[in-house]
Amino acid sequence: MDLLSYAIPALGDVATRALREVLDGEIVARGEAGYHAARTVWNGTVDRQPEVVAYCADVSDVVMALRFARAHDLVVAVRSGGHSVPGFSVCDGGIVIDLSRIRGVEVDPTGRIARVAGGSVLGDLDAAAQAHGLVCPVGAVAHTGVAGLTLGGGLGHLMRRYGLTIDSLRAVELVTADGRCVRVSADQNADLFWGLRGAGANFGIATSFEFDLHPLEPVVVAGSLIYDIERASELAGLVRTMPDTAPDELVVSMSWRIGPARPPFGPGLAGRPVAVCSVVYAGPIREAERVLRPLRALGPVVDSVGPTPYIDLQRRSDNVMAWGRRYYWKGAFVTELSDELLEVAIHRSVDVPSPNAAVGLMTLGGAIDRVPDRETAFAARAGRFWVTAEAVWDDPDDDDAYLAWGRGAMTAIAPFAMDRNYANDMGRTGVETLRAAYGDERYARLLALKRHWDPDNVFRMNHNVRPDAT
Ligand SMILES: Cc1cc2nc3c(=O)[nH]c(=O)nc-3n(C[C@H](O)[C@H](O)[C@H](O)COP(=O)(O)OP(=O)(O)OC[C@H]3O[C@@H](n4cnc5c(N)ncnc54)[C@H](O)[C@@H]3O)c2cc1C
């Protein structure tokens, strides 16, 4: 059956039936059993109602679903891990092209290469690579999608040692807006390869990725050092220089918060303001004691740092960050950890609706700096710290309180932040904010790519480089 002959104005039973006939995967249309689950994404505050969700079984399903969408002039949302915080992977009306059933990782241990199907999650890649003592540097929560994370950049526990996820990307198989399957790499469609590494959701549907892998022992040293809030300034004094002085194997996160009742805080710290320093040292275990000595010398009241299987580390936050809870999460990059920023961060972290809201930061630098800034569309390599405001809650009646807290925190952080930002970390933005996030030169290059590869703006559920923008 030729889908394009079904060019009827509104999507109805006939059209949905036609799609069902040509796809090997499953179609769930509005009103059918399973519709609620099919339209659900990770962030429970996102509540959209697509006409139809197409669970693609393979690449030809992706092509057919896209052709169908174009023939019926449907809004297209592309979904892999479903973790877009603003909910870009589900639309109102239109079609969700879902890749979550196109999942799997093949590792070539000799060549140190992983081939990753487009709907895989980080845990799939971590497990497959670690089975050979290898790793791809990815994000920190195992149920996050490889696709969305990679196409934005990919920051995580190993970024100072092995760079961003995009720095290990070798190639992408992409379904383009006109339904072609193209390979994108440094040798093929090189300009598009540049754009995919930082603004990738704009240009097509990635059905598989190829990554370089790197050696990693199965056990790293990780955990939290928790201090009385009075030590926050001394702690910041140590962390301040780390992006430029710490060994590449060490990534340190700091947050300031009201202690929650869960481990590793314990009942003694519940409800008290504390400074938390979480460390991941992915180097020789015998060196860890020396590397961490200055942090321990400050006298943490809790020290949970110790040898930890890397795979466990990567799953440690999976439950707190579970699907369907309600989230606020935005980020920015700063070039220094000033006393003024510290004061703002502490103030915003103790004046919270509950202990489940906090401001935090993570050290950058290391291998991220060794890739020339212009080499990828990712725009924030000059940042020294990645600062985030994060909150999680469950009751919709609490939305206003948490969203107001989050917006207040990000407004207070804004004067310290670089204009450059990370697509995976921003809320919905206008053209000018997006242009500033990439910078004029990068944005102009992205605009040219968009006009070439997606002139009709089929892929617009993302931080959208609009082809009609001037
Ligand atoms: C719990 C959690 C932890 C996180 N941790 C980190 C972290 O440690 N480091 C970090 O850098 N980021 C992190 N992030 C941010 C994360 O990188 C982004 O939310 C990312 O977009 C998620 O990708 P996804 O495939 O799960 O999302 P989706 O919601 O499926 O997609 C996100 C965007 O990518 C597009 N997209 C999805 N699949 C494809 C595809 N196959 N081809 C083309 N476009 C596609 C979507 O249309 C959408 O615009 C985290 C997010 C969450 C929710």
Structural summary, described in words:
The protein has helices spanning 13-22, 35-39, 59-71, 122-130, 146-152, 159-162, 190-199, 232-239, 242-245, 285-297, 310-315, 339-350, 399-413, 431-438, 440-453, and strands at 26-29, 52-55, 76-79, 95-98, 105-108, 113-117, 134-135, 169-175, 181-185, 205-212, 214-215, 219-228, 250-258, 273-281, 302-303, 306-309, 326-334, 357-363, 385-393. The chain is of the alpha+beta class and 470 residues long. The strands form four sheets. Strands 12, 13, 14, 15, 16, 17, 18 and 19 form an eight-stranded antiparallel β-sheet that branches. It has a five-stranded antiparallel β-sheet with strand order 5-6-10-8-9. Strands 1-2-4-3 form a four-stranded mixed β-sheet. The chain starts with 12 loop residues before the first helix and ends in a 17-residue tail after the last helix. It binds flavin-adenine dinucleotide. Flavin-adenine dinucleotide (FAD) binds next to strand 3, helix 5 and strand 10. The site of flavin-adenine dinucleotide has 35 residues, from strand 3, helix 5 and strand 10.
Helix content: 25-40%
Terminus-to-terminus distance: 40 Å
Report the CATH architecture of the largest domain.
Answer: 3-Layer(aba) Sandwich
User: Globular, elongated, flat, extended or rod-shaped: what is the shape?
Assistant: globular
Structural class: alpha+beta
